[in-house]
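discrete fold record:
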Amino acid sequence: MLSSYAQSDDDGLRRCPVCRRVERPFGRAAAYGSYDGGLRELIHLLKFNGVRPAAHVLGRMLAEAITALESSFGDAGLFDGGSIAVVPVPLFKAKRRQRRFNQAELIARAALKFCPARARFQLVPDLLVRTRDTHSQIGLTNHQRRANLRGAFAVARAAKADIKGREVLLVDDVYTTGTTATECARVLRRAGASRVWVATVARTLKLASNYAEFRPEEPEEEAEVEARQAV
């Protein structure tokens, strides 16, 4: 339930006065489309059924979201010159062993093959690590979601020197509430990243459309539990 004092941002997202005063740790975010219908089924095929060829199709979609994210800033482009670190949202090690892959990493690898400016991107899959498992986000308030994920991510010691002063493109399959993206971006910025941007294949907001660029509000945990119930 939203406070009666909540106001809408330029993109239509409503946030309470306290949340509006909090500086977001990442700049802009973009998604290819809405997390429903065929797109949702395709993500499920990869994520829960292990159909890895689906990552190729999802990667093409992510590449288009990345391109739209950059081109939305005009001729100057979103990213400065130099190499951009592409960082997939990590899974906890136990979940990765169970699934045998990180879907965000597979999609990111496929996406870079389709990006027109792929020479500017460097995939760094082990830069960000998930230090502990987290509870389901279902039914939690925004503040409870943030507390649930606080301290769940860290920059790997061996990669700390590689992150300082660099721009980072954080990628994932689904953007639900933005809590995961926010926490990951906060950790990356604290480790020295100059700027962080977010690109996902899908977003759960009902107003999502292809190439819809959006600003962060408050991911994936709710969508994952919901998906497991649907499978």
User: Anything to note?
Assistant: The chain has nine helices and ten strands.
